[in-house]
Amino acid sequence: xxxxxxxxxxxxxxxxxxxxxxxxxxxxxxxxxxxxxxxxxxxxxxxxxxxxxxxxxxxxxxxxxxxxxxxxxxxxxxxxxxxxxxxxxxxxxxxxxxxxxxxxxxxxxxxxxxxxxxxxxxxxxxxxxxxxxxxxxxxxxxxxxxxxxxxxxxxxxxxxxxxxxxxxxxxxxxxxxxxxxxxxxxxxxxxxxxxxxxxxxxxxxxxxxxxxxxxxxxxxxxxxxxxxxxxxxxxxxxxxxxxxxxxxxxxxxxxxxxxxxxxxxxxxxxxxxxxxxxxxxxxxxxxxxxxxxxxxxxxxxxxxxxxxxxxxxxx
Length: 315
Ligand code: 0JX
Ligand code: SF4
What we know:
Elements: E1 6-13, H1 19-35, E2 39-42, H2 49-58, E3 60-63, E4 75-77, H3 85-92, E5 97-99, H4 103-117, E6 121-125, H5 131-137, E7 145-148, H6 151-156, E8 165-169, H7 175-188, H8 202-215, E9 220-224, H9 230-241, E10 246-249, E11 265-270, H10 276-287, E12 291-298
Parallel strand pairs: 1-11, 1-12, 2-3, 2-4, 4-5, 6-7, 6-8, 9-10, 9-11
Helix pairs in contact: 8-9
This protein binds (3E)-4-hydroxybut-3-en-1-yl trihydrogen diphosphate and iron/sulfur cluster (SF4).
């Protein structure tokens, strides 16, 4: 038997599921128990194929728009949030709907409404086309919110009333990029109204900080997550900015052992929508080729949990 070469594996913590993802998945599972299958889900409940496939096997049907949900069946809205028009339409059609929007995303929705009520124009820092951005824009009347994606956008924005602005952000952004955009906004518009707390959520910042803590010790780093998962993509960027080559993979079958040829220390983390079972799958697959020396590097402890919607609490 040939001996396996050694490899040090630094596993970041916190990683993987956040409280909003846990809650969203439980909502779909409980809805299936309560109503019986099928339960429709508008958009991937979280951006992870394994999670979606597992729920499909239990009786969930995933669609992109409410129009695709037949009359008389329950529908769940994804963790990323929806424009106001979506629950309004569901009500109009008499559909039973359950909102799995993360409470931290809903908090941003409410702040957006409040800023509009206060008569301020909102600069929303986020990524164009992302469902959370679409959902947050859908909380306020058209023309009251402008998307800012980059420092350049912040530098070139020409407001009608520079003294009547506020900004809000998507929850899953790069902490560092956002700080640079916010700094540009504060410099250009000293009276701009800032959100009370951070809009970037605890899970996003903790996962980025954990990657930062290990990246410089690693020759390469894998992030387990989906290509449409904003928070997972940000983790790849964090590692790369520390000078560590990093890749996003969904599952163990995407591991590239050629890429690992000269790697002595590998970093590993998982986005907020990636289940721990996939971390174990990846570790086991790497372990089939290398003698692994695993080290978990914990930079924060998380204890956040969110209440379930009424009617779905455990019996
Ligand atoms: O693309 P995102 O990071 O916003 O979503 P994902 O990967 O499904 O993560 C969990 C849901 C996050 C909502 O804020
Ligand atoms: Fe909520 Fe943050 Fe998780 Fe998004 S990443 S679901 S905002 S806790």
